[in-house]
Design a protein that fits this description.
The structure is a single chain. A hairpin with a 3-residue loop joins strand 11 and strand 12. Helix 1 packs across helix 2. 26% of the residues are buried. Strands 5, 8, 9, 10, 11, 12, 13, 14, 15 and 16 form a ten-stranded antiparallel β-sheet that branches. The protein has 282 residues and is α+β, with helices and mostly antiparallel strands. The chain is elongated. The protein folds into two domains: 132 residues, LysM domain (Membrane-bound Lytic Murein Transglycosylase D, Chain A, Roll); 109 residues, Glucose Permease (Domain IIA), CATH 2.70.70.10. Keywords: Signal. This is Peptidase M23.
Length: 282
């Protein structure tokens, strides 16, 4: 009834219709990058996909694009405790338009005044038909026209934004809320005396005793970024000293308020505490 070629096509069509997931996995190449479907927000309609390369961080990608890292997190449903994995696909803006993450109490009219933009243009660009239902956390596109340049994943602009690990050990406490209160960094356990290294080049702006932190080193880096290393047993640098990336600056200890030998590591940008795991290279 059917030629051989026709029978083969019919069987293949039946297989795909009955098991679309398996068929897709069978015919999809490892480096296949899907298209971004048109959605109801600027974060969907004005984006392209970026495959995360080794060493990239959310902060580095956001800085390269000139946008707020919180906007990038909102576009991808990520938070301060999220980690980027090599090969992961994330959404990034396609056009060099301003992006705004809606805060509680903000309206489209208030946002338009902030950016000196036309309300109707914002509504049209984001396909908003019920502005009174605008929700906090929504990412809005403030219309623009210039596309972002496509940057190769191995660009130095990405890699230099990442911090190196100050210590190899076990993370015993992550950034964020916990029973005793908000934890402003990550704790990395290691044996007493283990070398602690500078996460990046910079200048030592504090080296000494701090309440709670004990023996502490703070280093200032380019981009208004600082890193803090707490609970050390011995400090090996002085205030005002220039240090290189990977240089030994202290040794692991249990000074200050501590239950055992470990490093308490913090990252701040413009004096605002950030999740260190967003900056540390993988």
């Amino acid at each position: 009834m059917f030629p051989k070629a026709g029978k083969l096509a019919l069987v293949l069509a039946l297989v795909i219709s009955l098991a679309p997931g398996r068929a897709q996995a069978w015919i999809t190449r490892d480096d296949f990058v899907p298209c971004v479907r048109s959605g109801t927000s600027a974060a969907d309609s004005e984006t392209r996909l970026h495959r995360v390369a080794r060493g990239e961080t959310l902060w580095g990608i956001a800085r390269n694009l000139g946008i707020d890292v919180e906007v990038l997190m909102a576009m991808n449903g990520l938070d301060d405790n999220s980690l980027l994995l090599e090969g992961q696909l994330i959404k990034i803006p396609y056009r060099q338009s301003r992006l705004h993450r809606v805060k509680t109490g903000e309206t489209v009219w208030k946002i338009a005044r902030m950016y000196q933009a036309d309300v109707n243009e914002i509504l049209n660009a984001n396909r908003i038909t019920r502005p009174e239902r605008l929700r906090a956390g929504t990412v809005l596109l403030i219309p623009g026209s210039k596309p972002y340049p496509v940057v190769a994943p191995t660009s130095r602009g990405f890699l230099t934004s990442a911090l190196s690990w100050p210590l190899v050990g076990t993370i015993t406490s992550k950034f964020g809320g916990r029973k005793s209160g908000f934890h402003h960094g990550v704790d990395i356990a290691a044996k007493k005396g283990t070398p602690i290294r500078a996460a990046d080049a910079g200048e030592v702006i504090f080296a000494g005793w701090k309440p709670v932190y004990g023996q502490t080193v703070i280093i200032k880096h380019p981009g208004n970024k600082t890193t803090l290393y707490g609970h050390a047993s011995k400090i090996k640098v002085k205030k005002g000293q220039k240090v290189r990336r990977g240089q030994v600056i202290a040794e692991v200890g249990s000074s200050g308020v501590s239950t055992g030998p470990h490093l308490h590591f913090e990252v701040r940008v413009d004096d605002e505490v950030k999740n260190p795991l967003l900056f540390l290279s993988r």
